[in-house]
Amino acid sequence: MDVAVKIWRYDPATGERALRDYEVDAPEWVTLLDVLDLIKDRVDGTLSFRKSCRMMICGSCGMRMDGAAVLACKTRMAEIVEAGHVPVISAMGNLPVVKDLVVDMDPFWQKMRAMQPWLQPGYLEAPEGKEFHVSQAQTNVINKEALCINCGCCVSECNSMESDPEFLGPAALAKGMRFVGDARDQATVERLERYNDEHGIWDCTRCYFCQERCPKGVDPRDAIAKLGAESIRHGIDRDMGAKHAKWFVTSAKTTGWLRETELVPKTQGIARSIKEIPFAMRLLKHGKVPPPFPPHVAKDVQESRALYELVKQQGRDGAAGIVQGEKALSRIEFIEELAQREEEAE
Amino acid sequence: MTRVAYYKGCLASLSAKELDTSTQALAPQLGLELEELEAVTCCGAGDIHEAEPDYYLHLNARILAYGEETGADTLMTICNVCTLNLRQANWQLRNDEALRERVNANLEAVGAPSYGGTVEVKHLLWLIAEGEGLELLRQAAHKGLKGLRIAPFYGCQILRPSKLLGFEDPDRPSSLERIIEACGGEAVDYPSKLKCCGFPIIQAREEVALGELIQPIEQALEAGAHAIVTPCPLCHLSLDAWQSKLEKSTGRSLGMPILHLAQLIGVAAGLDESELKFKRHIVPVAPLVEQLSV
Asked: ipTM, 2 decimals?
């Protein structure tokens, strides 16, 4: 088949940036990475991109197709060609471009290093010559985070990082959760303290781009939610983000609905919210500041209060309470696959 | 008429009352009979999921259970964040029997109905954007939106994560465009229509949030849009109310009116100001509506 792509080229020597058209003849089974190899081989040897394993495990070939981060080796071309579509290939976002499709991963690795991604305090001898036991339930808390291959696809798309380049970001924070949730690690509280800094957990804007793009199913946004839940479980709630989150809990268990007007002082503190008074007055004029009294109370709210007490007694606090349903997901996928196979067999 | 359980969420009963009134006024014209859920609470907005995740799951299970109790197949939401929170809990509960049993035992212990897993959570946008919904919309939108260029702003949590939402291609959605066009308006394309408005962190990290918020507003202006429409009241609040802060920080007058989805359709369907309540907006919408009636 004839495969056509457009590639954003960048030449650091001249600073020139240009969108170029390429077309190569390729077998049906090719991936985007194969196509780039063919172009480099047959059309233009100066095209630069990273690659290594070709099988979705090394994390080298992250790039953008039509503006969305993908692993080139995971992206099959047949369907795209069939649809008559000519995709635009470019370097990942949120990282400086070195040349063509190659980005400088240094900021990525700096943030990764800041997470101290190793077990602390290190190797421990089990008492009395026995083994340490890590239960399946303990492993389940981090089995998604452990899948990360450091490709940077999530970082490429992170909306918070576009606005705050210092944000630790989805890959590093997912790595952080991988150690916070590791039953063998002894530095949970110290880690959470650090991850709660200005550019940490509470910088996440919940755009879910990381979750959408991750080629390995790490679900970094869920990892960040787990870190938030773990922080609050350990009483680390100094950040305005944590206070904001806790106010929703207070609202749900008192009136049922969000106590919206009190959210600002509860998040920002009184001193800071005083500065917001002119802004609030403007909102008030348009009915955008609902009066806190009498409170807007949900019918049968005693049920949600009692639920809170009950749930707290059952003690599934922190990351353990976040259900990601991998088992359910694999079951769904398996059933769909089975149905498809049966259909094909018929 | 399709009977749906109507979960309006916090904002539509508080700062975004105009969303509730326009939705209620519009629903019969779109063939929707709304049964409003009363004994329900906040979905947690992603915040309870992050602070007390097990409580989040129970609160949402309770909402789903009360939705199921109405006998309707569909629980209709009008907020992206409610949609994701409820769909996520629904997916978890439906696909994990042991989990559902535990949650149901807790629901019963506090006197709430248990959840059988039969409800489908759908946003108003989805109910209108296809099949009969779009047909009814065309009939309802008799006044049209002639000459209006509308920029669709989807908001994150109606598209991503697609494994939980899955109504349309998260990178090439078209439901809002279809609705704008069915109402007789022109849909304007611009680069950041699928990006984040910054609302979840607008109080804790205002600067970071404003850095996100400015993109759709500036780009929609550049693309010549008369207004932005969004299916999410949180996006609405940041785009509308925080726009004044952007004007202050950039020293630029923006004046981009922001419409809730139900209001946009409401204008085309000739709803009254008493239902649309444009006076509740921070950025004036009146000039836009006047232009339409000329």
From this structure: 0.96
